[in-house]
Design a protein that fits this description.
TIM Barrel; 279 residues; five-stranded antiparallel beta sheet; 26% helix; 2 domains; single chain; alpha/beta; eight-stranded parallel barrel
């Protein structure tokens, strides 16, 4: 029996597209560019961040950073749908970080029209219930518990075919104890400097699919550092596959240096012909 095909949704800006051209997932894999070129503006209206030519068949990513939540949502929903259809996109990712009611309304309003037109819609976990036809993005990073259990619970809540694993290559420095479960984010350079200075013993958590180490500071006490690398991301993919999850969101800026190790191999262009320049 053939194995299901994996799909990588690779988020990147239009200016990063040349770096992705020539990359395609290997046999039994495929990748789709997801373009970080749109956001909600006041009104609300859809704003396009870049006038570059955009490939047909790609996904449009709509962010909400700076959105004030004012105004009726029907017009912007129509703008998103029209932009998706006129540019030949295969669907949209609603990358909403806020928690205000208009964002839930937008997800709910787009759900039916996208499904009726055969367009894919992806939403973050908090909006999964509002858009029952959409696929739901579950972050791969967690500071406690089990990734497998997290994904199993998401499948039970949303349905086994709706769950997407959103890969996050993170590094965080936690104070111990950590009552909030949130740490201080570390850039790759900060993590490298910290490890060079401490030369810590690094361990692997099979439950979190992440690496970690601990250290003591005279000023701030005990610390716990949790981080990802190519091996941990690959482990997270395998956990998802074992639960019949085969769609993955992957930020190109975070996976470019380990693309081959994750199964993304240089082959042929991922995108079809580009549309005409933005109006």
């Amino acid at each position: 029996m053939p194995q299901p095909m994996d799909t990588f949704l690779i988020t990147l800006t239009p200016r990063q597209l040349p770096a992705l051209q020539g990359w395609s997932t290997g046999r039994g894999w495929r990748s789709i560019p997801a373009l970080l070129a749109y956001r909600l503006g006041s009104g609300p209206h859809l704003l396009r961040a870049d006038n570059a030519s955009l490939p047909r068949g790609a996904l449009m990513v709509v962010g909400d950073r700076g959105f004030d939540g004012l105004g009726q949502t029907s017009a912007v929903c129509q703008e998103i749908l029209q932009e998706c259809q006129s540019r030949g996109f295969s669907g949209a990712i609603l990358d909403f970080e806020g928690r205000i009611p208009p964002l839930e309304q937008i997800a709910a309003r787009l759900d039916g029209p996208f499904a009726q037109r055969g367009l894919a819609l992806y939403v973050s976990e908090r909006y999964g219930a509002a858009a029952p036809h959409a696929q739901v993005m579950i972050p791969s990073s967690l500071s406690g518990g089990s990734l497998r259990q997290r994904l199993e619970e998401a499948r039970e809540r949303f349905g086994r075919d709706r769950v997407v694993l959103a890969l996050e290559r993170v590094a965080e420095d936690f104070f111990l104890p950590s009552p909030t479960g949130s740490g201080q984010p570390l850039s790759p350079e900060q993590l490298a400097r910290l490890m060079d200075r401490l030369e810590p013993a690094v361990f692997f958590s099979g439950e979190l699919c992440a690496r970690y180490f601990t250290y003591m500071s005279r000023e701030t006490g005990a610390h716990f550092v949790l981080f990802d690398d190519e091996d941990t991301l690959r482990c997270k993919l395998e956990v998802a596959r074992s639960l019949s999850i085969h769609t993955f969101l992957a930020p190109w800026a975070e996976v470019a240096d380990c693309a081959a190790g994750l199964g993304i191999r240089r082959s042929s262009p991922v995108a079809g012909r580009a549309t005409s320049s933005a109006r």
